Amino acid sequence: MLIRTTSLLSLVCAAGLIGCQGNSVVLNKPAGSRVAENQQKSDLAMMFSLAQLREGDDQLVEAKATYEELLAAEPQNAEYNHRYGVLLCKLGDYKKGIESLRTADSIQPNNVDILNDLGFACMVTDRNDLAISVLETALESDPRNARATNNLAMAHGYQGDFDEAFSLFSHCLLYTSDAADE
Q: Contact 65/43 with Cβ under 8 angstroms?
């Protein structure tokens, strides 16, 4: 908690360098196109870190606002769409969350983390057939991904396919123990 608070304090202090107005961050744009572009990238990276810290500290409404500012600046950024989609699902807005996760997947196809979160969101909203399809695609990209394997096992379990679920959970345990040995 101390490290997270210190990190948040550092970002707040640094926010003075990029400008603040209320709860929003204003991107300062120095003269010169290359300098301005580098400054904007730096500002966006700082805002993204702030959004993730807010999300980690359960400041979900504030994190949502920050992700929305990021997406206004770079709507085709897969990472911003991914985290925003996950956050919306945490807030219970699964429709918009899944939409944002699909956008992230369209920008960066076959990313196992995006597909895993999309599959999980589909599973939570009782779209198990779609969840299984998405999670199988994730495992095509990374066959030993324990999170995707675990979520696929749960999706099969929710459908009543307990043999497949048990088999996948067993594989998941092997992947987890293999990772611990490395």
A: no
Min mean pLDDT across 1-5, 48-52, 158-162 is at 1-5
Task: Give the torsion through C-alpha atoms of 82, 88, 93, 96, to 10 deg.
Answer: -40
pLDDT greater than 60 at residue 122 = yes
Instruction: Please give the single-letter amino acid code of residue 35.
Output: V
Token duo for residue 65: 């606002």
Q: Model pTM? A: 0.77
Helix or strand or coil: residue 136? helix
Q: Which residues contact 39 (CB under 8 A, 6 or more apart)?
A: 27, 28, 29, 30
Distance (Å, rounded) from C-alpha 116 to C-alpha 70? 23
Q: Report yes or no: 50 and 83 within 8 Å, Cβ to Cβ.
A: no
Q: 110: left (phi > 0), else alpha (psi -120 to 50), else beta?
A: left
The crossing angle, in degrees rounded to 10, of helices 78-90 and 33-56 is 20
Query: Are 37 and 47 within 8 A, CB to CB?
Result: no
Q: Where are the beta strands (DSSP E) in the chain?
A: 20-21, 24-25
